[in-house]
Amino acid sequence: MTANAFVGDGSLLTNLSAASVSNLVTTPNTWTAGQTFSAGIALGNVGIVGTATTVPPTLDVSGGVMSDYCVTLNADSFTSGDYTGNGRSGLFWVQHYGDPYPGHPHPVVSAETVIGIAGSDVVTPRYFKVASFNPDSTVNSNLVTVSQAGDMTVAGSIMAPRLSINGTVTASALQVNAIVANGNLTVSNNIVGNGNLTVAGNLSVGGSIHIPGAGVNTATAAFIHVITTTNLIYPWWTEFENTNCSGNPDAIVIATVACRQVTSDSYSPTGNWPIDVIYDSVTAKWGIESEGDNFTVGAQFHVLVINP
User: Fold this and answer.
1) Which own/partner pairs from 195-201 qualify as long-range (CB within 8 Å, at least 24 positions apart)?
2) How many CB atoms are closer than 10 A to CB 199?
3) d(CA 15, CA 68)
4) Which is nearest to 294 in space by CA: 240, 230, 256, 237?
5) What 3-state class would DSSP assign to 194?
6) How far apart are alpha carbons 24 and 238 in whole angstroms?
7) Which helix (H) or strand (E) holds 285?
8) Residue 156's pLDDT band (cuts 50, 70, 90)
9) Residue 59, pLDDT score
10) Bridge partners of residue 7, in order along the sequence
11) Distance between CA atoms of 59 and 50, rounded to whole angstroms?
């Protein structure tokens, strides 16, 4: 059926699967008489295509509601506030207002598009998901799942220059450019860190912590300090330059002697070196001091720097 205009209660359109009209004027309370609809709006099984551009403030669609601030399902309805009567599962346009000033009684200071689901007061669990579908209308894979409590499960990788997490992170493997976890961070495999890793809670790693580029006298948080004639300041004192701790007396510096087995009954180095790590305020460098024998050139130490 194609018409330029239609006036009535719309009852005769219920059995049409596609109707093209340029203007639709209806009389029930759902729509105000005289309002027109933009092209492409679908009402249940009725397709409406036209040229008008005025959209009603609220449009009741089969199974949900569309308005100028939300598109929701008719389920788990709001009982008060701006969204009263609308369902809590859907897409919302949320505006935040500032203090009024002349000519602007309700100035908008920020706005956000929110995907909403019902809160924990609903007994049956609700989830927001991003999924891929098969041609037969079944779910192929749940790519992202978010629960009412805010728990998020991701089927693939999360790639972001910075990730801030208030809860617990559990991952089989974690590659980090910069991550801030205000809760606990648990990784069952490896952590690969190219940037900063900040954890306010507990850090639990089932695999290894890999620091790319770490090696002899490198400018990384973990490195190998090798004694040379240049950095052996005294026979019992050697210093190192590292941007992670130099100039920072509050850095936490941990050092161990890198002792290697040469034969079945001999090790290198062979010195008796109980050691301390000390910050030199004159040179603004950290160093390693022997409390036993003098150091020898070529001796190596594993050093880890942690900044509080």
Assistant:
1) 201/168
2) 16
3) 28
4) 237
5) strand
6) 87
7) strand 285-290
8) confident
9) 55
10) 25
11) 16
* CA–CA dist 86, 207 (Å, integer): 48
Tell me how long the chain is. Answer: 308
181: number of Cβ within 10 Å = 21
Q: Which residues does 28 contact at the CB level (< 8 Å), separation at least 6?
A: 9, 10
Residue 95 scores a pLDDT above 90: no
pTM confidence score = 0.47
Query: Mean pLDDT throughout 235-242?
Result: 94
Q: How far apart are the C-alpha atoms of 200 and 129, rounded to whole Å?
A: 29
**The residue type at 16:** L
**Residues linked to residue 180 through DSSP beta bridges, in sequence order:** 164, 198
State the chain's mean pLDDT as an integer. 75
Query: What are phi and psi for residue 13, nearest 5 degrees?
Result: -95, -5
pLDDT digits (tens, 9 = 90+) for 200-216: 777 777 777 778 889 99
Instruction: Give the C-alpha separation, 222 to 204, whole Å.
Output: 18
**Pairwise CA distance, residues 183 & 165, whole Å:** 7
- With beta carbons less than 8 A apart as the criterion, state whether 245 and 251 touch: yes
- HSE-up of residue 59 (Cα within 13 Å, Cβ side): 18
Identity of residue 210: H
Q: Match 């559990």 to its residue by tokens.
A: 170
Contacts of 159 (CB under 8 A, 6+ apart): none
Q: How far is CA 104 from CA 68, 111, 112, 192, 283, in A?
A: 20, 16, 20, 51, 60
On the question of pLDDT at 292 being above 50, the answer is: yes
Phi, then psi, of 24 in degrees rounded to 5: -125, 120
For 71-88, the pLDDT digits (tens) are 888 788 889 987 888 888
Query: Cα(235)–Cα(139) distance, rounded to whole angstroms?
Result: 70
